[in-house]
Every structure is written in structure tokens, then in C-alpha cells.
Automatic annotation (TrEMBL):
One of its GO terms (cellular component) is Golgi membrane. Its cofactor is Mn(2+). One of its GO terms (biological process) is protein N-linked glycosylation. It is a single-pass type II membrane protein. Keywords: Disulfide bond, Glycoprotein, Glycosyltransferase, Golgi apparatus, Manganese, Membrane, Metal-binding, Signal-anchor, Transferase, Transmembrane, Transmembrane helix. Gene3D superfamilies: Spore Coat Polysaccharide Biosynthesis Protein SpsA, Chain A. This is Alpha-1,6-mannosyl-glycoprotein 2-beta-N-acetylglucosaminyltransferase. InterPro entries: GlcNAc_II, Nucleotide-diphossugar_trans. Mn(2+) binds at D235, H343. It is an enzyme of class 2 (transferase). It comes from Gossypium armourianum. It is found in: Golgi apparatus membrane.
Length: 432
């Protein structure tokens, strides 16, 4: 009898132990599944087939886009991954304004803008899309550390930084500087000043144009989005009240300035901090914290030829000098009388990534944030002051060059058609 009792006790203990083991294993499996759905896979974990990527690539081939290498294909797969932090912020606010952060390879700059964004009131309500000009590990780590909102990363798969030995990167037979193509038997067409392409420079305009086409027409999260999208860069400091001020500007724009194309967080002159008046301001669109909707994007997209053939490597100067003037009427943006974003960069292009040339004084930015900058400071009862005679590029301005190679111009035009062709075909398949 005693032995039977001991056996029963041992059986009961074994069953309890097995139950604990099973529950523990289930918990571990659930944790693994949860982590896998919330973390963007590394480049080595992206071998799975994504049918949408394959479809897009087939259209890319028809458009004669550069043949993608393995690295480029992997980046294109990352672009289709869902946003991270959806477990922390499962739903976006109904009236949210998506934020797109456009970055190069300046990690110290990126740390500043990310820290400023973390303190923005309402940031947890929206989606932050970070668009990278190529893949840079330090930049990637900073973005992966963001926990204050949903965040999605996209990487320009046709960036010169992704093609080390072929176009749009540098080919061995490319003409350089002021080479004579006929004498040197090299490839390339020079700009209006006789200079051949510099991949590091042309990547700026390529990235911006690819990003715009991808955000508006290529991503599941924003394709067909009717609301405004805010665009900022890695050398922009964003004030805590920026998002709430932008929501007010977007809501007031149809009433206060129905002819305004956009809303801006900062004056078009990056050296100014605003007038301090009790009035809204209508002026030409600035390049610091600008937001517009899909209707405006369609107008811009229809001017792809003007954008792609203007001989200037700067996307913003190209817009000011040729695209906006082609609309036939002044292009105004609405902003407040006090800035909600500041350009702090001291150097451009892809400088600033090292400790010795960081372009930031003492490795940090000391931006004064007053109490008025912490809460929405735009009033619906204000009138609008319009700057009628706006400074800008005069008729006949031909650009600063750097954008004369026929290959760059064709790649730019292909970006404009890439998702258009793909989405049109998708619609046709859906209707059939």
C-alpha cells in the first residue's frame, strides 16, 4: 500500500512537472512569434519569396531599370515589410498625418532629429517612415532603436551606394570630371558646365524622387492616402508642438488659404524663425517640414519630365525653378508665425558621419525650446498675411548643373513610371 501511494505521488509530481514544461515551452514559442512579427529581419533573413516584390521587379525590367544585384533585391524586400512597434501602438489615429524622414549617412544628425521627434506631442498616434539613401549600419541601428511610434524603414534600392561597380554607381568606363568622351572613349554625357556625373551628388535628387514615388504610389501603408504627409530631413530639429501645429494648419488651410498647396512648419528662409505676429503666413513652399496631400502629388508627378531634365542636382531647387512655375499660378504654403522646425545642418551631401567631421558643434545641438514651443500656438481666429512678391529663381535660370547625364535622367523618368505601371496592371487584374 505504501509503495502504491509513493507511485501515485511520483506520477502526480511528474504530471505537474510536464504541465510546467509544456506551459513554459508554449510561452517561449509565443514570445518568439511575437518578436518575429515586431522586429525587422536582418539582411541575412530575407530570403523568403515575396510575390509583390517579384511583380514589381518584372515591371522594373520592362522599364529598363538597372539590373538589380542581390543587395538591391534584399533592400527592396525590406521595403515591403510591415511597420515595427505595432504591438506597442496597434492603431493609428483616424486623422493622423504620416511623417516621412529622409536621411543620408549622418548618424550624429539622425540622433538629434530622432531625439527631438521622441518629444513631439502626438507622435505616438502616427506612422514614421524613414527613407534611407542606401544601407548604412549605424544609421539602421539608430532607427531600429525607435520605440515612440510605429516606424517603417525603406531603402532606395537603386541608390549609387548599392551599386559599387555599375550604374547608378561608378562604372570602370565612366567619364570623370571634364573628360572628353570621344577622346577618352568613356561613357557619360556632361552637364551644361562640362562636368560629368558624380554618383554621390546625383544620389540626392534620385533618392528624393524615388522616395516620393514610393511613398505616394508604392507602399501599402500610404498608397492612395488622402490626407497630408509631412516630409522632414535628418538635419531638422522638430519642436514638441510641431505635430499639433501641423494638424491645425491642415484643418485651417481649406478655409484660410484655399489656394495654398501645402502646410509648412518653418519659413522658406531657413535663417528665419518667424515673424511673431498674431497671423498665419502664406508664402512660397519651404524645404523644412513641408506637408501636402495626394492631389498635390499628382500635379507634381505630372511634371516628371520637367523635374528629370532640369540640370540641377538639388531636388528643392529643381522644384522651385521649374516644377512649381509650370503649374501656371503661384505655389503658396501656409505656416504659423513662429517656427516649429529648424534646419541645424552645417554641411550637406554625405558629410558628417565621422567623429572628426561631424558638422555639429561639440557633438550636439543646443536648441532653445521655450514654453510656447511645447504646445500648439496657432489660433483659428487669425487672418492670413500673404507675401505677394516672393524671392526665388528668376526666369531663365538654368540650374547649378550636376545633372546632365542621360542615364540619370532616364532613371528619374523610370522612377515616375515604376509604380504607376505596376498599380495600373493590378487594377486591371482586379477588375477582370
Amino acid at each position: 500500500m505504501a509503495n502504491c501511494k509513493k507511485l501515485r505521488l511520483k506520477d502526480a509530481a511528474l504530471k505537474r512537472l510536464l504541465s510546467v514544461v509544456v506551459v513554459t515551452l508554449l510561452g517561449v514559442l509565443l514570445l518568439i512569434v511575437s518578436l518575429r512579427t515586431n522586429i525587422t529581419p536582418g539582411l541575412s533573413e530575407l530570403d523568403e519569396d515575396l510575390s509583390e516584390i517579384t511583380d514589381i521587379q518584372s515591371f522594373s525590367e520592362k522599364l529598363n531599370l538597372p539590373k538589380q544585384n542581390e543587395f538591391s533585391i534584399r533592400l527592396a524586400k525590406i521595403n515591403q515589410m510591415p511597420p515595427r512597434n505595432r504591438d506597442l501602438y496597434p492603431k493609428l489615429a483616424k486623422d493622423h498625418i504620416t511623417i516621412v524622414l529622409y536621411v543620408h549617412n549622418r548618424p550624429q544628425y539622425l540622433q538629434v532629429v530622432v531625439k527631438s521627434l521622441s518629444k513631439v506631442v502626438g507622435i505616438s498616434e502616427t506612422l514614421l517612415i524613414v527613407s534611407h539613401d542606401g544601407y548604412f549600419e549605424e544609421m539602421n541601428k539608430i532607427v531600429e532603436g525607435i520605440k515612440f511610434c510605429q516606424v517603417k524603414q525603406i531603402f532606395a534600392p537603386y541608390s549609387p551606394h548599392v551599386f559599387p561597380d555599375s550604374f547608378p554607381g561608378v562604372s570602370s568606363n565612366d567619364c570623370k570630371e571634364k573628360d572628353d568622351a570621344g577622346k577618352k572613349h568613356c561613357v557619360g554625357s556632361p552637364d551644361q558646365y562640362g562636368n560629368h556625373r558624380s554618383p554621390r551628388i546625383v544620389s540626392l535628387k534620385h533618392h528624393w524622387w524615388w522616395m516620393m514615388n514610393t511613398v505616394w504610389d508604392g507602399l501599402k501603408e500610404t498608397r492612395g492616402h488622402n490626407g497630408h504627409i509631412l516630409f522632414i530631413e535628418e538635419d531638422h530639429f522638430i519642436y514638441p508642438n510641431a505635430y499639433r501645429n501641423l494638424q491645425l494648419l491642415v484643418s485651417l488651410k481649406p478655409i484660410k488659404c484655399p489656394d495654398c498647396y501645402a502646410a509648412n512648419l518653418a519659413p522658406c528662409d531657413v535663417n528665419l524663425r518667424g515673424e511673431g505676429w498674431d497671423s498665419l503666413i502664406a508664402e512660397r513652399m519651404g524645404n523644412v517640414g513641408y506637408a501636402f496631400n495626394w492631389t498635390v502629388w499628382r500635379k507634381i508627378h505630372r511634371k516628371a519630365k520637367e523635374f528629370c531634365f532640369f540640370d540641377d542636382y538639388n531636388w528643392d531647387i529643381t522644384m522651385w525653378a521649374t516644377v512649381y512655375p509650370s503649374f501656371g499660378s503661384p505655389v503658396y504654403t501656409l505656416r504659423g508665425p513662429r517656427t516649429s522646425a529648424v534646419h541645424f545642418g552645417k554641411c550637406g551631401l554625405h558629410q558628417g558621419q565621422g567623429q572628426t567631421n561631424a558638422c555639429i558643434d561639440n557633438g550636439s545641438v543646443n536648441m532653445q525650446v521655450d514654453d510656447i514651443d511645447r504646445v500648439a500656438n496657432i489660433r483659428s481666429e487669425w487672418g492670413v498675411h500673404v507675401y505677394d512678391n516672393q524671392p526665388g529663381y528668376k526666369a531663365g535660370f538654368k540650374g547649378w548643373g550636376g545633372w546632365g547625364d542621360d542615364r540619370d535622367r532616364q532613371l528619374c523618368l523610370n522612377f515616375a513610371q515604376m509604380y504607376h505601371s505596376y498599380n495600373t496592371s493590378l487594377s486591371a487584374l482586379t477588375m477582370s
